[in-house]
Design goal:
Elements (H helix, E strand, L loop, with lengths): L2 H7 L10 H12 L28 H8 L5 E2 L4 E2 L2 H11 L4 H6 L3 H11 L6
Antiparallel strand pairs: 1-2
Amino acid sequence: MPRSVVQKVGNLDPNFIHYLGDWDYGLRARQKDCTVWIAPGHLGTCSLNPQVTKVAASNLNEGLKKVNSPKGLAFSDVTLQSFDEWKVFTQRHGGIVWPIFWILPYRRLIMLYLLNKLGLSHQ
């Protein structure tokens, strides 16, 4: 990160544990009229991301525990982030409708949990 960007934007926000911090920083940089570049491929490595969840955890506590882990709860097309991190992110970047953006991703976890409880899931 160039010094000029850090002087305008500041450092990474400690509210974010994992990749939401990257998204937040890029959006804050754009808001301060900085140019954001995305490199092709990858420039580093880290531990593997969590396994994709085909069905919600059979008990809501387990699903919530995974959501609140540093890498979230991975579905095939979305990763649910911690409630607190996602709330900060949507408040900061979602405008007046941030509460809608905040709750939308979690509807799948709740729905799959309810289907499982009713015996309608495909586990």
